[in-house]
């Protein structure tokens, strides 16, 4: 674990932000900074699962991570270029975890995607409405609870019922999500981590451009 990752895992807000500023000033790759913070966020999640951290700690870590991405964003504009596409993303109905979702959002934004974040515990119809309003062609659904698997299927089915399933590519992700869950839900792909989600978005756009 790097110093930055450890500071974030320990919820040292000011020290994290100062370290990020120092690394940016020293010319460090912004994407590497995001990766180190991702590792710190992963440790936060592990501490929560081990009951060392509480929900308030998860909220605080997410707030720190959000500030980090704000600091980094201006340094990525040149790399990312113009908007590459729109992605609607949210955590499945019945699930309130958002650490993984927020990391995926940060990585997508770093690579030039416009992200519409619907938050957590998102109703299936809200995903459909967001796609219609934004014109997004990619949907990402995060799910860390097995009891929320039916909500993944309900969300995909909502796009079918709305008659726009063929207009969107749907990727799902989260620790318990695998290929079997993808088949059950009717999604297009599984993103094993944040970088995988970026790569999937890139592949989806290639399909749309044909």
TrEMBL record:
GO biological process per UniProt: homocysteine metabolic process; tetrahydrofolate metabolic process
Residue ranges occupied by any B12-binding domain in the UniProt entry: 84-210
Any one GO MF annotation of this record: metal ion binding
Domain annotation B12-binding N-terminal: ranges: 1-84
Coiled coil: none
Keyword Metal-binding: yes
Keyword Metal-binding among record annotations: yes
Pfam families attached to this UniProt entry: B12-binding (PF02310), B12-binding_2 (PF02607)
Family: Belongs to the methylamine corrinoid protein family.
Key words, A-Z: Cobalt, Metal-binding
Matches recorded under Gene3D superfamilies: Cobalamin-binding domain (3.40.50.280), Methionine synthase domain (1.10.1240.10)
GO cellular component: cytosol
Top-level division of the source organism's lineage: Bacteria
Xref: PROSITE patterns: B12_BINDING (PS51332), B12_BINDING_NTER (PS51337)
Organism: Thermanaeromonas toyohensis ToBE
Protein name: Methanogenic corrinoid protein MtbC1
